[in-house]
Amino acid sequence: MPLRRSKALVKWIYENQHKMQTLRRCSSTLRYKELEESSVPSLEPVAEVAPAHEPATKPRPQLTPDISFKFDDLQVTLAAPYQLQKKPEAIDLGFGKYFTDHMMKINYHRELGGWQKPEISPFEHLSLHPAAKALHYAVQLFEGLKAYRGVDDKIRLFRPDLNMQRMNLAAQRSGLPMFDGEELIKCITRLVQIDQEWVPHSETSTLYIRPTLIGTEPTFGIIEPESALLFVILSPVSAYYKTNSDGAVSIYADPNVVRAFPGGVGNRKVGSNYGPTIEITSRAAKLGHQQVLWLFGPNHELTEVGAMNIFVVYINEDGDKQLSTPPLNGLILPGVTRRSILELAGEWKELTVKEEVLTMQRIADLNQQGRLLEMFGAGTAVVVTPISNVGYLDTNIPVPTMQQHNPVYQRLKDTLLAIQYGHIEHPFAKVIT
């Protein structure tokens, strides 16, 4: 096409883009109508496992929208040689200090028909309007998963479908657009393939994957944003935080502060759950503790520890060893590692596995009776972290986690790592070719 005609076409598109947007909206509306009238059943991922006391017929939300971005539309722009970053040594990684050469962005504009084409591009800063809803009303959410380099040099993701389900649930609660989780997994897989050399050649380090969805509409109204941005960045990481010399942590339980409340968003991975925890975590650190044990209610019920789900191992009234964790009652994040632990441990005949309400008085009584064996936290960032002490009110409750012979926490951690690093084949692991 001659240069003059090309310039004329660009000028016409610029001057008539409002007409094109209207046309696209009409086309999208027709597409919605076609899908509604179609007899093809929609995909509906399994929702969170409900606590035992909830009816089995509880309706599940539709988490897969009719219109989503598609992996087939993914556009890739590779970084130039001068844009490539020097890869740090594994010993220097820390957590979230370094980022890979590329990122992925997917814009959403209701005026343009919804989700736009996914794009992988060189890592760059975001440009946001100062009035973007994410900056003022915390209209944002995120996920966290990892890519593991196995003993066979293959790269694996761990149950990414559960992260997608959880992300869509958070989007639904936040008034942000939902999407087809399988399409995002495919896009993330391609991003990891491009930056695969950033996946550490080590079983003590991983590549952390952070999908984030934010409201970008530049208005002050507290309503569903008409524009949003879903982006994914990657970071090679090692240990999340320092532990004591024996590998365990001490936790601080202050009943005067709460992380979540009934009817809130404690069960969704939104940023507003985390910022307000910084001050109390700093206070706990000054008292010699690594994490905060979040309590709730007049009975001081255990909910989470730091950003982890919490587990307790004790001898129950029947004389059996029991693994317990608080139920998903709306206060607790439905962790991927949490669910995996319950499913894996549920297959072990020598262990009773149960979701139950646990209070600090119950923990103190079990400890006094010599029946408390272990406590540990579990999550994507830390896998499994043993707990050796609980600072509660004016006392310290020593937990004999590290004195156990063949402790449950260690068996669970070893099993999870074996799956993630390919020592054993398991359906939880998704191999990236």
TrEMBL record:
What keywords sit in the KW lines? Amino-acid biosynthesis, Aminotransferase, Branched-chain amino acid biosynthesis, Pyridoxal phosphate, Transferase
Q: Which PROSITE patterns match?
A: AA_TRANSFER_CLASS_4 (PS00770)
Under the cellular component aspect of Gene Ontology, which terms does the record hold? Answer: mitochondrion
InterPro entries with a match to the protein in the record = Aminotrans_IV, Aminotrans_IV_CS, Aminotransferase-like, B_amino_transII, BCAT-like_C, BCAT-like_N, BCAT_family
Q: Which Gene3D superfamilies match?
A: 3.30.470.10, D-amino Acid Aminotransferase, subunit A, domain 2 (3.20.10.10)
| UniProt keyword annotation of Chloroplast present | no
Regions crossing the membrane: none
One family name in Pfam for this protein: Aminotran_4
EC assignment: 2.6.1.42
Record PTM N6-(pyridoxal phosphate)lysine, positions in chain: 269
Q: Which family does it belong to?
A: Belongs to the class-IV pyridoxal-phosphate-dependent aminotransferase family.
Task: Tell me the protein's name.
Answer: Branched-chain-amino-acid aminotransferase
